[in-house]
Design brief:
The complex is a heterodimer of chains A (about 450) and B (about 475). Chain A contains ten helices and 20 strands. With about 450 residues, chain A is an alpha+beta fold. In chain A, strands 1, 2, 3, 4, 5, 6 and 7 form a seven-stranded mixed β-sheet that branches. In chain A, a hairpin with a 4-residue loop joins strand 13 and strand 14. In chain B, strand 17 and strand 18 form a beta hairpin. The longest helix of chain B has 18 residues. Classes of the chains: A alpha+beta (about 450), B alpha+beta (about 475). Chains A and B meet through strand 1, strand 2, strand 3, helix 2 and strand 5 of A and strand 2, strand 3, helix 2, helix 3 and strand 6 of B.
Amino acid sequence: MEKTFNNLCESLFSQLMPGENLVLSLNGENSQFVRFNNASVRQTGMVDDADLGLKFIFNGRTCNGGFTISGDHDIDQKRGLNEIERMRTESKEIPEDPFLVMPVDTGSSHEIKNANGLAFEDAVDAILPAMKGTDFVGILANGKMYRGSANNLGQRHWFETESFCLDYSLVTPEHQMVKGCYAGSDWNQSEYEDYVSQSRTKLSLMEKKPMKVDTGEYRTWFEAAAVADFLGMFSWNGISEASLRQGCSGFGRMRNEDVRLSNKFSIIEDFSPGFCPKFNSNGEVSPNSIPLIQNGTLKNTLVSSRSAKEYGVESNFAESGEYLRSPRMEPGKLNQENVTKEIDRGLYLSNIHYLNWSDNAGGRITGLTRYACFWVENGEIVAPIETMRFDDSFYRFFGEKLLDVEDKVTVVPEVSTYGQRSLGATTCPGILVDSFALTL
Amino acid sequence: MKLNIEIKDLLSAIDVPAQWVGIREVYEAHTPRMIRDGVPVANARSSTHGLMVEILVDGQFGYYGTPDMTPEGVSLAAKHAFQQAKIASKNSLYKFDESARPSFQGEYKSPYSKDRGALSAGNLNKILLEAYENLKISDKIVSASSLCQLIETSFKYVSSNGSDINQEFLMLEFDLSATAVDGSNQQTRTFGGMRGTCRQMGLEYFDKYEIMANANRIGEQAIELLDAEDCPTGEMDVVIAPDQMMLQIHESIGHALEVDRILGDERNYAGWSFVKLEDFGTLQYGSKLMNITFDPTLESEFASYAFDDGGLKATKEYLIKEGLLVRGLGGKESQIRSGLDGVANFRSSGWNRAPIDRMANINLEPGDSSFDDLIGQVENGVYMESNKSWSIDDYRNKFQFGCEYGKLIENGKLTKTVKNPNYRGISTPFWNSLKGVGDLNTFGIYGTPNCGKGEPNQVIRVGHASPACLFSNIQVFGGV
């Protein structure tokens, strides 16, 4: 794939005329997808896919293009040249862009992560025996992923990784569920079987009849997976500079009214673990670490180079959508073993579901409990709960109501496969919140 | 650049001992153009082109999606698909036969009169810039945007049992948005909710609709919301406009009736359903006023088509008739697995994803109340327009929606504008509280380009048409 990309780059850059600039980006994968239901195979298949993105800058205008790479150089070159010609014509018709971002050459990078992954032909036989006797449902996504970036000034970046992710649920006959996600690069059969065994143990806690909880406010523990979902909301009308400037960010109160979250809450964009490339689709390389909220105070927002030009601030080379790519929330002091004692009476939530802003300006988020969620009484888990809706503000649960933060962090991998498999992960601890609002 | 591929000829390149073979070729090009805050932020065109080879062996389907559309590429794809299916067939959830892919032949073309070439990039930018200027009616509007995206899709499908289908689609998404801010009070108004205005049509759209008048109205309403009171809290009647009804239908009916969810395929991702297989023919889903159809035939609706991606011919069917649940959203595979009647809704997001049960056009049929009749029945309530927030549980029971714009209804009349109108409820009690259904004059055709489901994930286009509706005794509330 890298050779295909490099050959295309050479062909297309050589066709540029004076004054023209071109940035190319590649997203590709060679993936196996096996879908399971009732511990059997529902659907199985493979996908070879790679898209080339083109950003053409000329005459103070920016045009974008893109097409699927067929793998046949002649076809792909022709597709690329057609795109350049189309954009060349359009750049003479469309209005000038006062905030266009010109390519720069700040150095190249090359990273290939090979792995002893799970062979495609072995996958079903490796996974299913450990699930025997369970109602197992989920998806295996397995194989290589590619990211590339190049510009006509000579800058080149290449990132290639091989990984697997088995994202699954185990279900009791009474429809109670636990979630599991076994992901990595090197497949380790015994480690996998141990992981599944832990899921089975957790499932046994779900065998009690679920109890109905009244609406109201409760002391609540959120496991890391649930916290990762809350942090995911920061990527949508959240900690983006453009969102703040355009009046559609939940962080307006922090920026404009000096409202602070709890001093126990700190989050950084952290590229050091290498979950995803440091370069963005424009070929710009982010700093290794960007402090965003430090001890409750907003230190930085995510700023793309376009926002930097438009709003006169400094870029930290966020993607154009200014979303989190590799966030890390700092741990605290609460040991997981003490969690139920600290809750005393309240909720233990392992996962949450279908979040949305219910009042963006107020930081209010609604969503639902899902999977292993329990009622705790006298410091002991009593029973799973029936699904409840919540509606509360992050200014409360990451702010004044945040009691404590877990003393270790968990890596929650990005499992999205919309369009193609995603890279990245959220690293975060669990949190204990003094009162959290259930509404339905 | 679209390659011209004769996929019928490619069938002969496949040399594996399969029960059945199919090839589905999809080409799709997106052309978005957007002006935000007076400057161009999108002038793009991106395409995707490839095919999926599907193989049935030992009762198990296997697939391979590839952009290599040469005979050699297809042959290799078939071998990989065969191998995947063969290995999995020892642990198949269900043993299918050829009847899961019925044989049909036919064509479909979207209704439109002006294609992409009818307006140059420059002229379209001028229209969008003018729309922006009509949105930006005050300095309090801190951001405004106008967006148009044209989508051209070509779908071809052939199979070893004689299917031969060709469908050509032209679709248009259009949006206007204005955000007004005063301190920490921020209010956004759009043209029918986030990209709710999406249809199968061409650039004649710009001749038919009063874009500039609507832009001006949206700008004015964003400013109006800044000074509006918050929506009241309490149990009261609500009248819901079609551009919010579409999401109410989508979340609390459409997803709940997907038969693959009911069969448990989605439990690890989108979720299950409160609807059980035995509920079809017995569950009183809503009041007698409720008539829901799967209608791929409504002209210009976003997800109209003649055949689904498994090649099944698509027809209009009632899902809920006079409130009674009668049919599910199950394609041929789900019909075979469940033993239920279904519809032609086996759909995929493109050549690189296998089809699953999806919504297409799911509509609420019009009733006989005028808009004034609906409002006139309400002593104390709220009228709500345009979705801005949505959430529902994994069984499709407990939902919560937020809208952009509300009006108090007092003694049968619309009175003050209110901001942050929200409501919540539980699906079947909510639909059983349906007290009035608007007539054709209140009917609106909307849709969404962003319906997510499936593993691997797929985002797909759906259409929803509905009249305005009145519901009684609903939990309503405002902002923080």
